[in-house]
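note to self: dont lose this again. the chain is below, predicted strucutre after it. 87 aa total, dont forget to put it in the shared folder this time
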Amino acid sequence: MVDRTGDYTFKLCSDDGSRLQINELPVIDNWGLHGMRCMEETRNWPAGWHDVNVQHFENEGGAMISLQYKGYDTEDKWQNVQGYYQK
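---
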């Protein structure tokens, strides 16, 4: 839920690949075989509800993924996005 229209930055970190889509639009593509790597993207979002979809895969070794965002609603401070795992 975005309370105020404006620029929001999303940061997706993962070991190995991950992707972020919002409203079915690609936002971050952090796909591939790699250790922990973070990517950021800033976009302007209108107020209201938005569908967030994160994909992740792990090849071998450590597994980790995190999604954070910041913007007008967060006073420009990073907030963790919590979700649930669905196969």
